[in-house]
Amino acid sequence: MSTLEGIIERIKPLDPSAGAAAQARLDDLTKPLGSLGRLEELARRLAEIRGAAQLAQPLAAVAVFAADHGVAQAGVSPYPAEVTPQMVFNFLAGGAGINVLARHSGAQVRVVDVGVNYDFDDTPGLIKAKVAKGTANLMQEPAMTLEQARQAIGVGAQVAAQLIEEGHDLLIPGDMGIGNTTPCAALTSVLCGQPVAAVTGRGAGLDETGLVQKIKIIEQALALHQPSPDKPLEALAAVGGLEIAAICGYILEAAAQGVPVILDGFIAGSGALVASRLCPAVKDYLFAGHCSVEIGHQVQLEALGLTPILNLNLRLGEGTGAALALNVLRAAVAIYNEMATFADAGVTGHQD
Question: Which residue among 165, 208, 318, 338 is the active-site one?
Fold first, then answer.
């Protein structure tokens, strides 16, 4: 398996020539110039990422990375930690939101145990890659060691590599972990240089008292660990999560192989933030599926330079917003391939 540094070395800037060729085709379709708006932008960007003006409908896959968080002991979520393994079983049974929306958009779902505090039996559809049984409580000690953070990044990279080897050419990161919006808010505060209160939301439904306590917990953790935006890997280890690290590695490996990624919400955005700080060129391979209700997600999108495809007031996670956005990307590819050109249709084109 490649080292983190080896993966980063393989990530190359995009060649805009494929995008220019795609734009020429888009401009020749039977419509006023630019009249299909962001559908045209999505098709052009997809061509740039793939390095070719020929587009096919993507063979998409979702990897749901699951892990527990020591900080959940502090009451940062209205749900108990036992929900994490319970939801893993729900994913495997096909009953979760991401299963429904992935089926609807034509994407396969894989579930990855990267850090759940539960011993799963061998189960079809479950990738067992546990680095630890959850993180440590970041209020008291670093969430992970540097080695654990690297190992979890490696898990994500390996999952991406396997999916790409199977023929998948578009990847979506999903997540599951009770309490995981707390480390995400901590990382977003550090990497985006924002006050904790400006990037911390209610997660799975905290009341006002719970939100105030959550902000205090994150502030205390940042004061304890003093993570630096100039050291993203160390910040990830100090206040991050195992599934966040795995998502980071998943994104890095996809970019290294020239495969586009549709991000979901706050958790996936946190993994993308770390990945982009490790290798800024990663941002060129990303689509933002939607804008989450979590207030820190908009801060992440601005830092990543991404405009969300959808804005539906979602805050579930799991990859659901990205799976929905996949339908829009499919529509962009369909327009690109199936719409007639002026010459094909015998229609008079734009007069210069």
Answer: 318
- Pairing relationship of beta strands 107-115 and 126-128 according to DSSP bridges: parallel
Report the chain's C-alpha Rg in angstroms.
20
Residues 44-79, buried b or exposed e (16+ Cβ, 10 A)?
Answer: bbbbbbbeebebeebebbbbbbbbbbbbbebebbee
Model pTM above 0.90: yes
Instruction: Check whether residue 195 and residue 309 sit in a common domain.
Output: yes
Tokens of 36: 């299909």
Both tokens assigned to 5:
């540094």
Q: How many domains does the chain have?
A: 2
pLDDT at 294 over 90: yes
- 226 assigned to some structural domain: yes
Whether 82 is catalytic is no
**Are both 243 and 266 inside the same structural domain?**
yes
Give the three-state DSSP class for 49. helix
CATH of the domain at 46: 1.10.1610.10
Cβ atoms of 29 and 332 closer than 8 Å: no
Q: How confident is the model at residue 351 (pLDDT cuts 50, 70, 90)?
A: confident
Residues 290 and 155 in one domain: yes
CATH code at 221?
3.40.50.10210
